[in-house]
UniProtKB/TrEMBL annotation:
<dbReference type="InterPro" id="IPR008146">
    <property type="entry name" value="Gln_synth_cat_dom"/>
</dbReference>
<keyword id="KW-0547">Nucleotide-binding</keyword>
<dbReference type="InterPro" id="IPR050292">
    <property type="entry name" value="Glutamine_Synthetase"/>
</dbReference>
<feature type="domain" description="GS catalytic">
    <location>
        <begin position="85"/>
        <end position="304"/>
    </location>
</feature>
<keyword id="KW-0436">Ligase</keyword>
<dbReference type="GO" id="GO:0005524">
    <property type="term" value="F:ATP binding"/>
</dbReference>
<comment type="similarity">
    <text>Belongs to the glutamine synthetase family.</text>
</comment>
<keyword id="KW-0067">ATP-binding</keyword>
<dbReference type="InterPro" id="IPR036651">
    <property type="entry name" value="Gln_synt_N_sf"/>
</dbReference>
<dbReference type="GO" id="GO:0006542">
    <property type="term" value="P:glutamine biosynthetic process"/>
</dbReference>
<dbReference type="GO" id="GO:0004356">
    <property type="term" value="F:glutamine synthetase activity"/>
</dbReference>
<dbReference type="GO" id="GO:0005737">
    <property type="term" value="C:cytoplasm"/>
</dbReference>
<dbReference type="InterPro" id="IPR014746">
    <property type="entry name" value="Gln_synth/guanido_kin_cat_dom"/>
</dbReference>
<keyword id="KW-0963">Cytoplasm</keyword>
<protein>
    <recommendedName>
        <fullName>Glutamine synthetase</fullName>
        <ecNumber>6.3.1.2</ecNumber>
    </recommendedName>
</protein>
Length: 312
């Protein structure tokens, strides 16, 4: 879709205003997950003073959002990640914090959040407008102007202060890898500045191209100490609930993932559970272990969820 030439803003003008002294004023940007389970919204308020802890952050009405949790800061301003409640103070359907249920296991998650960069015309960033790039192979962790597109976006995002352990270009041209809800939100803001779109579509380009995913690395306190035995026990439990997890791992109850998880392009078949050691095509990889099933737009709160009715 064509856009008006007036839609492109002069970023230098913004810098002039952003460099003005802020004085004693503090800004708090509230971020919440919407009813779809994957969209993000934000609203900025000016508290009376700089919050020193979560309890000092005032609640904010943003389509039912109330803030009980904070993530990140940019002195003296704050980025506030919200839990969402209804008007009757009951948790909204997308409010899925469940870690207290397994606190005694000391779980550890590492989310490998992939995304695909698109131009405002929804064409993959860096691709020719009338053709396709060379076949996949050289782009994974690629270096060079003909292999790595959008590195400025990745580096700006990496610098934002969220806990990201690594970044790398992925297999398909225009892929990059990162972590979590706040990282997703900041990524969208960074892309605004570069006039690029970050999409979390599981299969943005049909055909012989890799899809995008959110591989999930998981460990508990017992696993590093006691080795493969506890990992194999956990994988065995996962195998009993494969279809449930497939339905839980994307907002479309598995339909998004079905376009990606075909058994090709380094994926397992969506209908089959498999596990292996150093096997990129398996459902589950062992070590700490890695679940390669979650979709790129996975509901992060549900990816680790285990409802009571499924417990032994």
């Amino acid at each position: 879709m064509a856009t008006s030439t007036s839609s492109h803003l002069n970023k230098g003008t913004k810098k002039m205003y952003m460099s003005l002294p802020q004085g004693e004023k503090v800004q708090a940007m509230y971020v919440c997950i919407d009813g779809t389970g994957e969209g993000l919204h934000c609203k900025t308020r000016t508290p009376d003073c700089e919050p020193k802890c979560v309890e000092e952050i005032p609640e904010c009405n943003l389509d039912g959002c109330s803030t009980l949790q904070t993530e990140g800061s940019n002195n003296p301003n704050n980025l506030v990640f919200c839990e969402v409640f209804k008007s009757n103070r009951k948790p909204a359907e997308t409010n899925l914090w469940i870690m207290d249920m397994v606190r005694n296991q000391h779980p550890w998650f590492g989310m490998e959040q992939e995304y695909t960069l698109m131009g405002t015309d929804r064409h993959p960033f860096g691709w020719s407008s009338n053709g396709f790039p060379g076949s996949q192979g050289p782009y994974y962790c690629g270096v060079g102007a003909d292999k790595a597109y959008g590195r400025h976006i990745v580096q700006a995002h990496y610098q934002a202060g969220v806990k990201i352990t690594r970044t790398n270009a992925e297999v398909m041209h225009a892929h990059m890898g990162d972590h979590l809800w706040v990282a997703r939100f900041i990524l969208h803001h960074v892309c605004e500045d570069f006039e690029v779109i970050a999409t979390f579509d599981s299969k943005p380009i049909p055909g012989n191209w890799n899809g995008a995913v959110c591989h999930t690395n998981f460990s508990t306190e017992a696993m590093p100490e006691n080795g493969l035995k506890y990992i194999e026990e956990a994988v065995e439990e996962l195998s009993k609930r494969h279809q449930y997890h497939i339905r839980a791992y994307d907002p479309k109850r598995g339909l998004d993932n079905a376009r990606r998880q075909t058994g090709f392009h380094e994926t397992s078949n969506i209908n089959d559970f498999s596990a292996g050691v150093a096997n990129r095509g398996a459902s589950i990889q062992k070590g700490y272990f890695e679940d390669r099933r979650p979709s790129v737009n996975c509901l992060l709160s549900e990816t680790g969820d285990e409802p009571l009715q499924y417990k032994n």
